[in-house]
Design a protein that fits this description.
The structure holds two protein chains of two kinds.
Chain A lengths: L3 E7 L6 H9 L7 E6 L6 H5 L5 E4 L6 H11 L4 E5 L3 E3 L3 H8 L5 E10 L5 H9 L9 E2 L8 E5 H7 L11 H12 L2 E12 L5 H12 L12 H10 L3 H16 L2 H32 L1
Parallel strand pairs in A: 1-2, 1-4, 2-3, 6-9
Antiparallel strand pairs in A: 4-8, 5-9, 6-8, 7-9
Helix pairs in contact in A: 5-8, 8-11, 9-11, 10-11
Chain B lengths: L6 E7 L3 H12 L8 E8 L5 H7 L7 E5 L4 H11 L4 E5 L3 E3 L3 H5 L8 E10 L5 H8 L7 E3 L2 E4 L4 E5 H6 L13 H11 L3 E12 L5 H20 L13 H14 L7 H20 L3 H31 L15
The chains are: A alpha/beta, B alpha/beta.
């Protein structure tokens, strides 16, 4: 039986990490080593984790999700590397199902589906509707991308394409990785039987800013990220995308009969635009400081 | 006893004999054993001498040729399926060229009982024309549309269906006599029955079907028409992520009219127009040159414009064709 390493990137995850680890211990597939990547936590995460048979790796300060993932890949000793978010509870067959997909040599990675525990409050319902991390109930070969929250990759395959791009700080690094894997000619598989439960709880503000930061890198080309002119162009140009996104969401919610979410769909435009304008201002100031 | 499942490849064509030869030639060079698939050309009333061309050219030997009066691609495909011998029917358009492993890949996975169809990858081949470069850059219709419920629909210039399910669902709705909207319609009906679709990335088709701006706009006009047809046939649960629904649009207009705005019909056009500079910035930020970014943003705008025009035209057309009274699966003649 092949050996598997599992890593959990953590940033201030004291509320959920214990439940998460309890579920990890109950996996039917044996896990060879568990790595906790402490990305500069300010809370009791390290204390809680110390009660479990895991290896703790600390970043002196917060460096972002992409760097944490790469740290994990540098430290693991096995070829199969599973990733799990600190607020995700895996079903007991989760790892087994993910491993089943990797029997074929050309498959570089596999991912599972994510269900929400909390979907009653407006913000949580909105997240479940519009930020659901799933590709449906059937196996999908080569989905648009694999969500990073629960996935399994071959380290050898990722070595060939150069691991995660650290310029994506904490968002969209999974999309970027998937697209580079496809460009290399390898396959990815989505398996809906590998289930994970998301125990995140959101407020209106946090869910909208989460959406915005997820959307942040969509049109960003990391090659040009350091150039102020290109970056400024993306930041400004993106503002016109929010009304369109909002329109799609409004239609979806109206059709599904979620009247309570309509307000949030509209709010998305204004809140995200506001956050973006703040960001733009900061870029302008920084560039001036640079000169 | 054949070692592999029999596949019928159906190529509907309309006034396109220049590229039809290339398509069929690429279908003849397949890794799939030649006695395990057949090629059916359905001539949708071409007037450019396709029949004579097919009879004369050598590459059409062993290819079945069916002629029908001009009724649109949906009807042509249905006719092809009626005449097909295989358990699996695969579709390409006559302006495509397929990869040598195409049939092998597109016919994979049918052991799964509930699988209704497969879609492949359509690579737009960029040439010197700006429109084809645009299509290649935005990856227009490259893969089947996927969302959180899985593969929503496959695009028929590179797709295969299980024939029995195709027939049970009634085939393509022949009231769609233009290329647009008929595949979401059929896939929706099949998915509603509990079947699902898959995506096979390795089933490659190369196409430069949108060479000129006219062709791009015409196809978006058709997509708009198709969108109206979908809405009118009460497929309200259907939703296209990138597509604007007519029903929602009218509700929106009503809502804003109540608020007292008068020139609301121009609202969307103005919004789209205002998007041009923003889109230009986005394309520039993604790494294109400023001139190309401007051209691409302009394409985005006119494309949307024609799409909306298509929605209006499709609404009028659909009313005349009585799409309102449609019952699900009313086209039972195939069963």
């Amino acid at each position: 039986m092949p050996k598997v390493s599992l890593y959990i990137p953590c940033f201030n995850a004291e509320k959920t990490i214990q439940e998460c680890l309890e579920n990890v211990m109950r996996q039917t597939f044996p896990i060879d080593e568990i790595l906790i990547i402490d990305d500069g936590c300010q809370d009791k995460t390290a204390d809680i984790v110390s009660h479990y048979p895991v290896k703790l790796i600390r970043h002196p300060k917060n460096k972002g999700l992409a760097v944490s993932r790469n740290t994990a890949f540098r430290q693991v000793r096995n070829d199969f590397v599973a990733a799990l978010d600190a607020d995700c509870l895996p079903h007991s067959d989760w790892l087994k199902e993910l491993m089943l997909c990797l029997e074929d040599e050309t498959v570089a990675g596999s991912g599972g589906t994510l269900t929400e525990r909390y979907s009653v409050d407006v913000a949580d319902k909105w997240r479940a509707m519009h930020m659901s991390q799933t590709w449906g109930r059937e196996i999908v070969n080569n989905p648009p991308f694999l969500y990073g929250s629960n996935s399994l990759f071959r380290k050898k395959a990722l070595e060939k394409i150069g691991f995660y791009n650290e310029k994506y700080r904490s968002n969209r690094e999974d999309v970027d990785l998937s697209s580079r894997i496809y460009d290399y000619g390898l396959n990815l598989v989505y398996n809906p039987k590998a289930r994970v439960e998301h125990i995140r709880k959101d407020t209106v503000k946090s869910v909208l800013s989460a959406y915005r930061s997820w959307f942040y890198y969509t049109h960003m080309n990391t090659k040009y990220m350091d150039r102020v002119s290109r970056r400024f162009a993306v930041n400004l140009g993106r503002l016109a995308e929010y009304p369109e996104i909002s329109e799609v969401f409004l239609r979806e919610d109206a059709r599904e009969g979620n009247q309570d979410l309509l307000f949030l769909d509209l709010l998305l435009v204004f809140y995200c635009t506001w956050l973006d304008l703040k960001q733009l201002f900061r870029i302008l100031l920084l560039s001036e400081a640079g000169i | 006893m054949r070692e592999k499942v029999f596949v019928s490849v159906i190529v509907p064509t309309y006034n396109n004999k220049d590229t039809l030869g290339k398509a069929v030639a690429s279908l003849n060079r397949q890794s799939y054993p030649r006695d395990c698939y057949e090629i059916i050309i359905v001539d949708d009333g071409s007037t450019d001498g396709t029949r004579r061309y097919v009879e004369q050219e050598g590459c059409f030997r062993g290819v079945r040729y069916i002629y029908q009066k001009n009724k649109g691609p949906a009807a042509a495909r249905n006719l092809g399926v009626q005449n097909a011998l295989g358990e699996i029917v695969a579709f390409i358009d006559s302006d495509c060229v397929v990869a040598p492993i195409w049939i092998e890949e597109i016919s994979k996975g049918y052991e799964t009982p509930r699988l209704a169809g497969t879609g492949g990858t359509v690579k737009a081949v960029p040439t010197s024309s700006a429109v084809s470069q645009y299509c290649a850059y935005v990856k227009l219709n490259e893969t089947p549309l996927m969302d959180k419920t899985g593969v929503m629909f496959v695009i028929t210039n590179n797709a295969s269906f299980r024939k029995s399910y195709y027939k049970a669902a009634g085939g393509f709705d022949e009231r769609y006599d233009f290329p647009g909207g008929e595949e979401p319609d059929l896939c929706y009906r099949l998915r509603k029955k509990g079947y699902f679709f898959q995506y096979n990335r390795d089933a490659f088709v190369y196409s430069n079907h949108k060479e000129s701006l006219g062709r791009l706009l015409r196809s978006y006009f058709n997509y708009g028409k198709g969108d109206s047809f979908l809405t009118l046939s009460k497929l309200t649960e259907w939703d296209l992520a990138s597509v604007s629904g007519l029903k929602w649009y009218f509700n929106f207009i009503k809502m804003v009219l109540k608020a007292g705005f008068v020139f609301i019909n121009d609202f969307r056009f103005i919004i789209r127009f205002m998007k041009i500079p923003f889109k230009t910035l986005l394309y520039y930020g993604e790494g294109l040159g400023i001139r190309q970014a401007l051209i691409f943003a302009w394409f985005d705008y006119v494309k949307q414009l024609w799409f909306i025009a298509g929605i209006f035209w499709g609404y009028i057309l659909g009313r005349f064709r009585g799409l309102r009274k449609q019952e699900m699966g009313s086209i039972l003649k195939y069963i």
